[in-house]
Every structure is written in structure tokens, then in C-alpha cells.
UniProtKB/TrEMBL annotation:
Domain of life: Eukaryota
Compartments, record wording: Membrane
Keyword check for RNA-binding: no
Coiled-coil zones: none
Recorded GO CC terms: plasma membrane
UniProt keywords, alphabetically: Membrane, Transmembrane, Transmembrane helix
InterPro entries in UniProt: Tetraspanin/Peripherin, Tetraspanin_EC2_sf
Protein name, entry field: TSN36 protein
Alphabetical list of Pfam families matching this protein: Tetraspanin (PF00335)
Segments crossing the lipid bilayer: 28-54, 61-85
Entry membrane topology: Multi-pass membrane protein
Organism listed in the record: Leucopsar rothschildi
Length: 168
């Protein structure tokens, strides 16, 4: 389990590099770091449990039980906090995404990240393609279209024009 959690934590940190423009708050990596720390603690606790079982030590098994109970309480607390603050996180992420979409010009680093995100997640805009109509890029181009990264992969002749929403 510790190895699995270590992999998940490392994967989240590695994936973060692709989306760091959207998550300007560096505390967004905190869950991944916590996951890796939990993996290390789980490995140590597992060793304590194995050693206590191997030696048939009542004190060691009691310590193991106490540690497992503390971890269970921490997990329940984390779940409750995640549930309570889920809307705040959603609002913060959407606000940051909107600010990155506002910086889109088709050439800068933010533009590359926006295009990558839309292609990977098969989406267009923060909520839908109409989000693009309020951006500076949309108003400056004047061609009533969204970036080509909004196009569905199956659409061969997609131009990003808003008069063809079925291709977005």
C-alpha cells in the first residue's frame, strides 16, 4: 500500500507540471506531498506491525493498534474537511482558470497550457465554449470563433466557428 501511495503522490506531482499555470497557488501540491508522507509513515507502521507480530509482543501490537486508530481518525477528519471545503476549492480553481483564459493570445505559455488542457480533457472553456465569448482574445480576433483546441478530435474540418457548436 505504501508503494502504491508513493506512486500516486509522485504521479500527481509530475502531472502538476502540465497544469501549474492553472494552479498558481503552490499549496495545490500539498495533497501530493501529504500522500507521499503518509506512504512513508505507512511503511514504518507496517514494519512495526510485522515486527510485533513476529515477536508476539503485546506492547508492540497495542502500539500498532493505537497508531492504526489515530490514522483512522485522521482519515475521517480529512474526508470531512474535503467535503466541507469542496465548493471553495471549486470556486478558486474556476477563478484561476478564468484568469488564465483571459491571458490567452495563442502564442504565450498560458495559451499553450490552455490548448493542452482542452485537448487532453476534451473540453472547451471553463464550463463550455461560450466562456470564450468574454475573453480578450475572442474580441480581438473578431472572427466569432474559439481556439482550434476546442474542436472534437473526430471533426475533420473544424474551424472553431461558433456557428458549428456540434464540432466543439
Amino acid at each position: 500500500a505504501a508503494a502504491g501511495l508513493s506512486y500516486v503522490g509522485a504521479y500527481v506531482i509530475n502531472t502538476y507540471k502540465s497544469y501549474d499555470n492553472f494552479l498558481q497557488d503552490k499549496y495545490a501540491l500539498l495533497p501530493a506531498v501529504i500522500i507521499i508522507c503518509v506512504a512513508v509513515v505507512m511503511f514504518i507502521i507496517g514494519l512495526i506491525g510485522c515486527c510485533a507480530t513476529f515477536r508476539e509482543s503485546r506492547v508492540g501490537l497495542g502500539l500498532f493498534l493505537a497508531i492504526i486508530l489515530v490514522i483512522f481518525i485522521a482519515e475521517v477528519s480529512a474526508f470531512v474537511l474535503g467535503f466541507v471545503y469542496r465548493e471553495k476549492v471549486k470556486t478558486d480553481v474556476q477563478g484561476t482558470m478564468r484568469s488564465v483564459f483571459e491571458k490567452y493570445d495563442g502564442k504565450n505559455a498560458e495559451s499553450t497550457v490552455v490548448d493542452y488542457l482542452q485537448e487532453q480533457l476534451h473540453c472547451c472553456g471553463v464550463k463550455n465554449y461560450s466562456d470564450w465569448t468574454t475573453t480578450q482574445w475572442f474580441n480581438s480576433t473578431g472572427n466569432n470563433s474559439v481556439p482550434l483546441s476546442c474542436c472534437q478530435q473526430e471533426a475533420k474540418n473544424c474551424t472553431g466557428h461558433l456557428d458549428q457548436p456540434q464540432e466543439l
